[in-house]
Design a protein that fits this description.
The chain has 672 residues and is an alpha/beta fold. The chain has five domains: 42 residues, no CATH class; 212 residues, Rossmann fold, CATH 3.40.50; 68 residues, no CATH class; 159 residues, no CATH class; 129 residues, no CATH class. The protein has 31 helices and 15 strands. Helix 1 runs antiparallel to helix 2, helix 21 packs across helix 23 and helix 22 packs parallel to helix 25. One of its GO terms (molecular function) is ATP binding. One of its GO terms (cellular component) is cytoplasm. It holds the Pfam family NACHT. InterPro entries: DEATH-like_dom_sf (IPR011029), LRR_dom_sf (IPR032675), NACHT-assoc (IPR029495), NACHT_NTPase (IPR007111), NLR (IPR051261), NLRP_HD2 (IPR041267), NOD1/2_WH (IPR041075), P-loop_NTPase (IPR027417).
Length: 672
């Protein structure tokens, strides 16, 4: 075009200055269109007689890209309230997963770290896939982690929607958002069919497969993938048209054997993210939770028409340190806010002794379930009959969903499909009731329908309800789904089995389930759910022995771990807090010296996380021996202001403390 004097050097330079190839093409077309029919005819001849990128972009890519943008804007913009998502526009830049993140349940991670990330570096969303400096290169594989309910999928939607509107990363021609829920429905795929199946409007995938167009592939929700990724034994594949097992396809994409030129962004809960070798991850980020002001704003949005109610809910959360910490997670904050608001509304005018102020996890979820159970049955004439009928139907639904939840939990399965519903004899028509829609969310795509619990803890509470009910009549081990096991009779034997499995499980994924199971033995929870899901006062026959068994789990040796702390939290759920109260009182009075037996050390480790006495300063002056200090070491990591004076420590203790201060998880800021 330059040789034909249809495009001057200055005009060509102006076109080159555009940030992306589609915009360069547009600039050239606009310049030639302004020069009359001869220039346009020359361009037409050129694109008809060559196989250049210009031809492809004008005749194929441009309309394809436009259709892709419209499709993403429609899908990702639906229900996205960008005003409430400011928190997601700045991610935390982290160096890798900590030991706590790799090993512990999401809830324990939050409780242990008090909801505060151990980093101050952040990266804005628009720079997530850009080089950090002028001498570095853009990351090829990025991983973003966050606990259940913190907003990973919402973050993906926000990014895609913002990109599709042309506001960020304009150099990227294709953003391809996929979920592992969707990938679960395939057994084998090629890289080519992956793109064509998920995005049928992309009629020419070769531009992506060959790297001609800059592409970002998003894989959302690794923790929901049905098959663990095995990078050590995955077969190498470099042919984009070859169909292979889906897990092998993912490992080859992440390794760069397929879609070498594409950037890859994986989101996951922390424990699942450890499947990806650190050496393959170029950038790791973390979604931060709510700060104190954001919890207030979130509750104000929840109760937009009743600011007094919002204020009362916030006051209740602030008064309970455990709830306050967990409410840094939006998903949990919503459940807690709903439950506390329901309590406040229903307790008006009731005697104080009959209303249960929700303090424990089990009480929060009992109120939530009670609210869900009652939603289908507004007050009408013949109320008694309706309530009986409602209770009967609710028990049936909760029993069916509970079995699904329990065995899903054992299999680390959190997304279910229609074949799963049929396997567990769940009537699909039951899933249309408002009770089900409050507990189980439904995602309908062109090729599949997926169901998942509204939060991981909803699944765990339902699983505990199922186990609690089934354990009273089961004669075989409930953890063996086939029913083939040694006979196991009586609720207490099943309770002990659940606690022991939780203590032995390497992945810690039964910890909250066992906490809920303990909570169902609480008189307060029984009072809330009796007549609906529990039999009135039935816990009286089990509670004392279950408490004795849990206390026995603490009296092993001086090694205090997060499992020990979780056992203490089980005692809190069951409403047996005598040990913790004794140790807390001694801490206040500075009289811990000589008291720290293995059981009291367990209580102390629990209080380091849960007590307001330890919030400003953890004062362990004049009470620690070498053995006690060694046993508490892993729990002292998360004390911000630690006082250890007058303990007559020797050099070997100093070496221990030195090792603590160098650990990645350590949050100690002041040591005296």
């Amino acid at each position: 075009l330059g040789r034909l004097e249809l495009l001057t050097a200055e005009e060509a330079s102006r076109a080159w200055e555009e940030s992306s190839l589609p915009e360069q093409v547009r600039a050239v077309v606009d310049i030639l269109a302004s020069k009359g029919s001869y220039a346009s005819q020359t361009l037409q001849t050129f694109i008809e007689t060559t196989n250049s990128q210009l031809y492809l972009h004008i005749t194929v890519y441009e309309p394809m890209v436009q259709k892709h943008l419209e499709s993403l804007q429609s899908y990702c913009g639906n229900g996205l309230e960008t005003g409430a998502l400011q928190r997601l526009t700045n991610l935390l830049l982290v160096e890798g997963l900590t030991d706590i993140q790799q090993q512990e349940h999401d809830i324990l991670q939050i409780e242990t770290t008090k909801g505060l990330p151990n980093t101050s570096k952040s990266i804005p969303l628009e720079k997530l896939f850009l080089p950090l400096s002028k001498v570095s290169v853009p990351p090829r594989v990025s991983v973003t982690t966050g606990v259940a309910g913190i907003g990973k999928s919402t973050l993906v939607k926000l990014f895609v929607y913002t990109w599709a509107k042309g506001e960020i990363n304009r150099d990227v021609m294709f953003v391809l958002p996929l979920t592992f829920r969707e990938l679960n429905t395939y057994e084998k795929l090629s890289a080519e069919r992956l793109i064509c199946s998920a995005f049928p409007h992309i009629t020419e995938p070769n531009c992506i497969l060959a790297g001609a167009a800059r592409t970002l592939l998003i894989l959302d929700g690794l923790d929901e993938f049905k098959t663990p990724l095995d990078f050590s034994n995955a077969l190498v594949c470099t042919d984009p048209t070859k169909e292979i097992q889906v897990d092998n396809l993912i490992t080859n994409i992440i390794r760069g054997n397929l879609l070498q030129e594409a950037s890859v962004w994986v989101t996951s809960r922390p424990t699942a993210a450890r499947q990806i070798p650190a050496g393959l991850v170029d950038r790791m980020t973390e979604i931060r939770g709510f700060g104190a002001a954001e919890i207030k704003d979130f509750l104000d949005q929840m109760f937009l028409d009743d600011r007094d109610l919002s204020s009362q809910v916030l006051q209740h959360i602030r008064a309970n340190r455990s709830l306050r910490v967990l409410c840094t997670v939006p998903g949990f904050c919503w459940i807690s806010g709903s439950s506390i608001a329901y309590y406040l509304k229903t307790s008006v005018g009731q005697p104080q002794e009959t209303s249960v102020v929700p303090r424990t996890l089990s009480e929060i979820y009992s109120y939530y379930f009670k609210m869900a159970l009652g939603s289908d049955w507004p007050e009408k004439p013949r109320e008694t009959l309706r309530i009986e009928q409602a209770a009967s139907n609710s028990k049936k639904i909760v029993g069916s969903l509970g079995r699904l939840a329990f065995y899903g939990l054992l299999r680390k399965k959190h997304v279910f499909y229609e074949q799963d519903m049929k396997a567990y004899s769940i009537d699909l028509s039951l899933l249309q009731s408002s009770l089900c829609t409050r507990l189980l969310l439904k995602e309908e795509m062109q090729t599949f329908t997926a169901y998942y619990f509204s939060h991981l803890t909803i699944q765990e509470f339902l699983a505990a309800l199922y186990y609690y009910t089934a354990a009273k009549r089961a004669i075989f081990d409930l953890f063996t789904e086939s029913g083939m096991s040694w006979p196991k009779l009586g609720f207490l034997n099943h309770f002990k089995s659940a606690v022991q499995r939780s203590l032995q499980a390497e992945d810690r994924q039964l910890d909250i389930f066992v906490r809920f199971l303990s909570g169902l033995l609480s008189p307060q929870v029984n009072k809330l759910l009796s007549g609906w899901l529990l039999v009135k006062d039935e816990q009286n026959g089990f509670r004392s022995q279950a408490t004795t068994f849990l206390q026995g789990c603490l009296n092993t040796d001086y090694t205090i771990s997060l499992r020990t702390v979780n056992t203490m939290r089980c005692l809190y759920e069951i409403q047996h807090m005598e040990i913790a109260k004794t140790v807390e009182e001694a801490m206040k009075n500075k009289s811990l010296a000589g008291m720290l037996t293995p059981v009291n050390c367990s209580a102390l480790a629990y209080l380091l996380q849960a007590s307001d006495v330890c919030m400003e300063e953890t004062n362990l002056s004049n009470c620690l021996t070498y053995n006690v200090c060694k046993s508490l070491l892993s729990q002292l990591l998360f004390c911000h202001n630690l006082r250890l004076d007058n303990n007559q420590f020797k050099d070997n203790v100093m070496e221990l403390l030195g090792s603590v201060l160098s650990v990645k998880d350590c949050q100690i800021q002041k040591l005296r």
